[in-house]
Predict the structure.
Amino acid sequence: MAKGVRRVRSRFGGRLEPLSRVRLILHEGRGELCTVTSAETVNAHATIRERREPLERAAQACDAVLRLFDAAEPNRPAYNLLCQELLLLDDEAAAATRAQALAFRLKLLLAAGFVPELSACASCGDADHGLAAFSASAGGVVCASCEAGSFPLGHDAREFLSTALARPLAEAPSAPDPALRQAERAIGETLEHHAHVRLRRVT
């Protein structure tokens, strides 16, 4: 709770705006809610709210974190990742692309412990034969012998997933639209199967 925050002369003012990063001092009472007693702005991310696309991407990023992680359990990698994403979206020179948004979701999978296997068949471990399909139940890419219940995953999509995991978030790779659609399906089905979470599509 932030008492009096709607008053014109509130001491919190605009510090508790959505998408702002703040440092809070909270008073823990008898109930489940804490009372905000102090708020200090770390980064207001004001530029995000000036453009529609970064604003939508930022809202999707926050929504993904809220759905995937328990608010009562700290997760430093997920928190740092979200901070990086908001900083990138706050940069006027950075493009809020679909590929970058998917790279963020893929790294969230890593932070949650659900990162898919991409270098060898998730079922049999074979890395020498064609890995042209993806199975969330198996845990990643699968070979032709283990592709039952999977969907096709092309080379470009697998390359995007592998590269996005290896690179920093600010260096997210690009990929053709068909590859990004396959990559999004792989991320989405992994989330649904292992975390029972369904996120909005990235457009």
The chain has two domains: 1-44, 47-195.
